[in-house]
Amino acid sequence: MKDPLRVVVWNEFVHERQNPRVAEIYPRGLHETIASALRPHRELTVETAVLSDPDQGLPPERLAATDVLLWWGHAAHDAVSDDLARRVQERVVEGMGFVALHSGHNSKPFKRLMGTSCMLCWREAGERERVWVVNPGHPIAAGIGDCIELEHSEMYGEPFGIPTPDEQVFISWFEGGEVFRGGCCWTRGSGRIFYFSPGHESYPIYHHPEIQRVILNAVLWARPQGRRAEVPRHVPAEKAREKLTVRGPQLHDAGGNLHG
User: Fold this and answer.
1) 106: domain CATH number?
2) Angle at which helices 30-38 and 209-222 pack, to 10 degrees?
3) Is residue 245 part of a domain?
4) So what's the pLDDT on residue 156?
5) How many structural domains does the chain have?
6) d(CA 217, CA 165)
């Protein structure tokens, strides 16, 4: 029997403490609503972390033990330390899955992984959103019909300042007419990344069964795929797989430093 997939749902946990409407929808926090939907699945062990926890919820040993990290942030992106953002990026490159949710597009870890602005257009008017499945054969779309209809949502619109996705799973349409690439996949190093846009804190989107199904699918898809790349690594001539003759000056030492 395989070991369960170790999942951490990270949330800054600010709006729920400051806004009564958000607290009414998510009384235990968005992170607990998301985690509660994942916990019944036996192949997962699911924990939560919030910004106010020691080490901002992700000390090195916990991050090193995480297989898939889900990230929700909005009001406190700048409060996340640059060191934590760097460590998350490094873990993804090593093979950890990363699922950025809603306004997590503007989080430090996501922007480091994308290398672009990740900016977009938005409007908060409680309008209808249809999350259209444009890649029905993709594992993240498993069990979802033609679209997910959300009665009230925040509009996210193009242009969206992301690198071209490796795979596009969903595109959203909004009542006001805008469209948005709201379900995108990338690979960075050995790690898989999925961004999923629905999830504004003022609406009960994470209680929606199909949204919960997409998040579960994303966690299973983003799981580590194999061993991480063991680099940088110096391979001396005598350890080469085939016999070779060394030619020319050797300008770098085993640490990659230039000789003087």
Assistant:
1) 3.40.50.880
2) 70
3) no
4) 98
5) 1
6) 18
